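Review form for a predicted model. The reviewer records the input and the model, then writes brief findings.
Reviewer: anonymous (R2)
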Amino acid sequence: MTKLTILIPAYNEAQTLGQIIEGVLNVPLPMQREVIVIDDGSGDETQKIAQSFKGPEVTFLRHGLNRGKGAAIRTGLARASGDIVLVQDADMEYYPSEIPRLLAPFIDPEVQAVYGSRILKAGNPKFNLRFYWGGRLISWWTNRLYGSKLTDEPTGYKAFRAGLLQSLDLSADGFEFCAEATAKMLKRRIRIVEVPISYRPRGFHEGKKLSVWDGLTALWTLTKHRLF
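Model under review:
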């Protein structure tokens, strides 16, 4: 039977982590699941909340210091035993109830990666035009560089065949980890399937951590992997 690994990188996400873990454990799936929570050096109650869910389906890992989202994903990936790996942010911007939507295309054995597109779903809110158009710019630049047709490259909802993800030799520590994965797949001419997903953006007062610098770093990451 196919097995799904859900990686949840978390940094100071005590307010929402419990809801996310409950959500990924309760969503009906046609396969086995394992959940790996990686606390990336949080200073709040993230560790306590994650440890309260430890059990047969939930593994808890921790960084002593904050190393970045990419580093946390790599730590979790090293322990993953699933055939498919899905990254679930811990901030409730993406709904665990929509995990089956990301998994559906994998019924085709040729599908290697699936991205949840916020753009393809009509009616999703845009809380901050700077981030909305920044995301559109990153997608446009990705398509210009690699000849792809992605609508939402910087989406936080991504799923991969485990063997593919492990073969990419990913090294980025921060949010640019996702751009690195995209670039390396497209450079290999691996098709990325997109499916529409719902999205609930949060504000900085709720703990949003992305910055303009993260967007610029993603653009540079996409560019350097195309050139070198």
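Findings: The first helix runs from residue 17 to 26.
Further findings: The domain at 3-227 is CATH 3.90.550.10 (Spore Coat Polysaccharide Biosynthesis Protein SpsA; Chain A).
Recommendation: see findings above.
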